[in-house]
Amino acid sequence: MECAILEIDGSLSVLKKPQYQNTTKQDLTILPSPETKPVELIYDGNILYENLSNHSYDEEWLLAELKKRNFAVFDIAYAVVGTKGNLSIDLFRNQLN
Fold first, then answer.
1. E strand or H helix at 62, and its extent?
2. Residue pair 66/73 in contact by the 8 Å Cβ criterion
3. What gap in Å lies between CA 39 and CA 82, rounded to an integer?
4. In the chain, fewer beta carbons within 10 Å around the N or the C end?
């Protein structure tokens, strides 16, 4: 214990020695990761262009991702980019990728 103070209301406040104090993100100069929300990109076989334009994704990127998986837009019931940037696809034939 570095220091202890008996407060007027009778409580005891204790200041721990530096080696025993809790480390914070600020102490480590770690910047918080930006909060991201899932972005729906395809619904019912149609590209949601408004969602593409409001985020850092574009049609070229989306079509390239679908081509990697051998899918066409009309194959997809639902596609969403998750909070970690991963593209999840639900096909009409009920297969998840």
1. helix 59-68
2. yes
3. 7
4. N
Query: Which residue has better confidence, 62 or 94?
Result: 62
In the chain, domain spans: 39-91
Segment 9-36 mean pLDDT:
76
CA nearest neighbour of 51 among 94, 63, 42, 60: 42
CB 32 within 8 A of CB 22: no
Q: Summarize pLDDT for 42-91 with one digit per residue, the tens.
A: 999 999 999 888 877 889 999 999 999 999 999 999 999 988 888 999 99
What is the CATH superfamily name and number for domain 39-91?
A: bsu07140 like domains (3.30.240.20)
Residue 94, pLDDT above cutoff 60? no
Kindly list the distances between the CA atom of residue 31 and the CA atoms of 38, 39, 76, 84, in Å, as whole numbers in the listed order: 21, 23, 37, 16
